[in-house]
Amino acid sequence: NPSDTTYAIAVTTDPTFGSNLQYVQTDNTLKTTTPVWQTYTAWFATGGAASGTNIIGLTTGTAYYARVEASRGTFTQGPFSPIVSASTVTPTFTFNLQTTNQAVPPYTVGIGVVNAGQVTTSWQKIITTITTNANKGGTVYISGANAGLKSANAGNYTIASAANDLSSGGVTEGYGARGLSASASTGNMELLNPYNLGGNNVGPVNTSKNAIADSTSAPVTSGTINFELKAKASSSTPAANDYADTITVIASGSF
Q1: What stretches of 142-232 show up as alpha helix (H) in DSSP?
Q2: How confident is the model at residue 1 (pLDDT cuts 50, 70, 90)?
């Protein structure tokens, strides 16, 4: 068609186009109004016809039917095109959390005796699994209530958490999480920096929501990560038997 041809896009949930007729607006919403006419270039300004045009505000789990009408100048409006259809999906997201020896909460992860100058690793490993059809995938976050291992018996002294190599001679004490593995049945799951560095490198477990892993901006099935906790005390760290932290693990999908 000539470049000055304009088009209107009609959408309905009725396969016969006998009811619920709406038109795509310039803001990509649907409204029961008169047709909005735009050129081919205007409708597909985001990347050409191959990329389609977005329609927002649709209902999940619903079949939609669309057809296009063309017009140029006066008294030249043509018939509607054949009907095409597509169905929206129902958003799904499942999340599982457990440790290597505990399948149901509440979970306790023990580190044991943390000797001065030595890196100590938690006995249990923490495992999270997500499954989602979110088009931008899912992400797992961790945070700690105390931003470190805190002892009431030692006057609320805290072995602070930060992104560090606990093996480094310049790090006298510290605490954090280290990712061990990531896998998925379908799609992809990956540990994120600095939780993926190996050795005694740890990422922070502070009061911020820290992304430890994600599904690389795509849907995933059984996206699983495995991580552990590590701690190091210094010769000046007060001795106490109640150093502890409360960790929150959150998962979300980006639909």
Answers
A1: none
A2: low
Positive or negative, the CA dihedral 111, 112, 115, 119 is negative
pLDDT digits (tens, 9 = 90+) for 36-88: 999 888 887 655 556 677 898 999 899 999 999 999 877 788 888 999 999 99
Instruction: Give the C-alpha separation, 226 to 215, whole Å.
Output: 14
Q: Tally the C-alpha atoms within 13 A of residue 3's C-alpha that lie toward its C-beta.
A: 1
Which tokens is 16 given? 């016969």
Residue 50 φ/ψ, nearest 5 degrees: -60, -30
Residue 41: per-residue pLDDT? 83
Measured from the Cβ of residue 16, the count of other Cβ atoms closer than 10 Å reads 8
Residue entry with tokens 């169905």: 87
C-alpha to C-alpha distance for 106 and 119, rounded to whole angstroms: 26
Would you give the DSSP letter of residue 40?
H
Report helix, strand and coil shares of the chain as percent, to nearest 5.
5, 40, 55
Place of tokens 């989602």: 132
Please compute the mean of the pLDDT values over residues 8-19 and round it to a whole number.
94
**Dist. CA 218–CA 214, nearest whole Å:** 9
Helices (H), the chain: 40-43
CA-CA distance, 232 to 246, in Å (whole number)?
Answer: 18
